[in-house]
Design a protein that fits this description.
By secondary structure, this protein is of the alpha+beta class. It has 2 domains: about 30 residues; about 260 residues, Deoxyribonuclease I, Chain A (4-Layer Sandwich). The protein has a 7-stranded mixed beta sheet. The protein has a 6-stranded mixed beta sheet with strand order 5-6-7-8-11-9. Helix 2 links the parallel strand 1 and strand 2. Helix 2 crosses helix 3 and helix 4 packs parallel to helix 5. The longest helix has 26 residues. The termini are far apart.
Length: about 290
């Protein structure tokens, strides 16, 4: 009987060891990242009841509900950035105004969950032939444009990620193409070999030249490669005024080959009391490292 008890004890110890090893392995499994791109529509009084004062609380609530770890926004004016910082204290926000590289004009800010990430370095550049100069129009662009980027350490997984967020021109076809080429070049210069994410309003469809340039450069459109996609095939609706058949997909999340995409959702939510959070739907993507 003593010999049987001793054997049982050894088996119990071995089972506990195996269980502990399995739990340790599970604990080390990388946590997925939630990434959102959201054109919030700039604050203009001509939008009447769709103007920012009527939308800002709801937009912040939507962001808090879906709780992206990384968030890139477009068309953010300084007063809107201040409102969002106040309403979303769980995030650190970085970026500059496109008109002067400081506080003037629209931002393409990056928000990151402060508990999840540590900021290693960050910066901004203009989408133009003079990327270090702000307030200039690049190529055939109608407007001057900017890209904000951050190199971050994931406190949960221990790895690094490079995050770029931008807004391509709505008129200049050359500017859109050269803009994404510049972004890819900057990825190689600023974070070589680091898994990278690009979010933005591209002002063009998924089969147009900017997307082809990115895909030929090795980047992947999250909506095309996600294991699961959900929501409408469009993101811009002009505060609901565009007929369904005319609504385009303009907002994207792109990732480098080291990254897998589990889910991609175009969020079509609207406030209970009517109206809209923006004239664009946000896009939410769940990603993980290979």
């Amino acid at each position: 009987m003593k010999r049987i008890s001793f054997i049982h004890s050894l088996l119990l110890v071995a089972a506990i060891s195996v269980l502990g090893a399995c739990q340790s392995k599970t604990a080390q499994k990388p946590e997925p990242l939630q990434v959102m791109t959201f054109n919030i529509r700039l604050d203009v009084s001509s939008d009447s009841l769709n103007s920012w004062p009527y939308r800002k609380a709801g937009a912040a609530q939507l962001i808090s509900y879906y709780a992206p770890d990384l968030l890139g926004m477009q068309e953010v004016l300084p007063n809107q950035l201040a409102d969002l910082k106040q309403a979303l204290p769980q995030y650190t926000a970085i970026g500059v105004g496109r008109d002067d590289g400081k506080t003037a004009g629209e931002y393409c800010p990056v928000f990151f969950n402060t508990e999840r990430f540590e900021l290693l370095k960050h910066g901004d550049f203009s989408l133009s032939e003079q990327p270090e100069t702000f307030g200039v129009k690049g190529w055939d662009a109608e407007c001057n444009r900017v890209c904000t980027w951050a190199l971050l350490t994931d406190k949960v997984n221990g790895g690094q990620v490079a995050y770029f967020n931008t807004h391509l021109d709505h008129i200049g076809t050359v500017a859109r193409r050269e803009g994404v080429r510049l972004v890819m070049q900057k990825m190689q210069e600023l974070a070589p070999g680091v898994p990278a994410i690009l979010t933005g309003d591209f002002n063009c469809g998924p089969e147009e030249e900017p997307s082809r340039v990115l895909e030929e450069g090795g980047m992947k459109n999250a909506q095309k490669v996600a294991d699961i996609t959900y929501g409408p095939s469009w993101s811009f609706h002009d505060f609901g005024r565009l007929p369904l058949a005319e609504r385009p997909l303009l907002d994207y999340v792109y990732v480098t080959p080291q990254v897998e995409v589990a889910r991609c959702r175009v969020i079509q939510d609207t406030p209970d009391g009517g109206g809209y959070y923006s004239d664009h739907n946000p896009v939410l993507v769940e990603i993980k490292s290979k």
